[in-house]
Amino acid sequence: xxxxxxxxxxxxxxxxxxxxxxxxxxxxxxxxxxxxxxxxxxxxxxxxxxxxxxxxxxxxxxxxxxxxxxxxxxxxxxxxxxxxxxxxxxxxxxxxxxxxxxxxxxx
Length: 107
Prior knowledge:
By secondary structure, the protein is mainly beta. Helix content is about 15%, strand content about 35%. The chain has two helices and seven strands; from the N terminus they run E-E-E-H-E-E-E-H-E. The longest helix is centred in the middle third of the chain and has 9 residues. It is globular and about 30 Å long. The relative contact order is 0.32. About 20% of the residues have low confidence.
């Protein structure tokens, strides 16, 4: 099954965020660990690290702004298995499967 991306979705009430996994910091105070987009807590700001998906879907994510170094923020999760992300002044709805394909580093 191909992950889904829905543009232009307005965020609703988010569910409580999960605790962020523990991580270590390097000497500059930056996080060295990467997380899947689905692992970070609601409200967290992060930068895209990589996209690991089939070529056609990775290309679609890149065209939407999911490119290494681009900042984003997880706005909410809903109980139906999707999340709302703010990236490049846009809000996008991603399936949890799509979110797992995107690696990020918290800011």
